[in-house]
Structure prediction request, 311 residues.
Amino acid sequence: MGMQVTILGSSSAIPANDRYPSAQVLAYENRLYLIDCGEGTQMQMNRYNVKKNRINHIFISHLHGDHYLGLMGLLSSYHLFGRKADLHIYAPCELENIIELQKKAALTVFQYNVIFHTLESRLNNPIYEDDKLAVSAVPLSHRIPAFGFIFREKPAEPKIYKEAINVYKLSVEDILRIKRGTPFYDQNGQLVPRASLVYPDKKLSSYAYISDTIYDPTLAHKLKGIEMLYHECTFGEDMKTVAAEKFHSTAMQAANIALKAGVSLLLLGHFSARYKTTEALASEARSVFQNVLAVEDGGTYAVNSGMKNEL
Ligand SMILES: [Zn+2]
Prediction:
């Protein structure tokens, strides 16, 4: 399965207009990563059939309630369901104390380990890495410390053509050297073009989650080459002043970042409750950058294809 994101919540501040506060699940190679966990995330997971137990890593952007008030409930449910697997949480530093206080008040000791990774002290990227994927944190400009997250597929080991192995009688050592990128010469001393030896590199998937932030043009540089960008768009351009006062962005500002970063697809989310529908925000963004979708709760968006399909 390629990289795809299911939106569980796209509302800013409060649940409204059938939109829940921020939460989304990134799926890649049968692994699930939770990004933010606003109020109601568990109910949304139930509704959209997200396999909670496959989540071992949770990324929390900042400690405004609309981004993490569902987390304690989720942790508590894991305890009640008898979870044993370690759970890693990447978040601003105060979150650990908040969780510990709630556990203490309830005289609860979880049956599984929660391992906190403080974002403030982990700015050497990546903050998380496995064999398939690396995650980096990006500091954002908000009223309190806030971080965006970039998920990047890691390059796979180059694959050698079977015919090349036969034609050039490649030894195991030759194969290892070619995989490492060493030039290969045939028996006559002629350089063999790399394209005749290895399959072409696959386009690597990447996804960035940028919420919440004031308009920050310097982000574009950090997001260069990202395939799919989710950028907060709390307001329309007519509310530009209010957006700046509240350290949020407008649809047009999100589109400017997408344009400057050269992303393939821009997803708009984190909508103010004042917008019952979001088409106007999407068309405002399209006046700057063509490939825009305003997300819907329950929508799944695949990186590279730009396809959206309801679960
Ligand atoms: Zn927010």
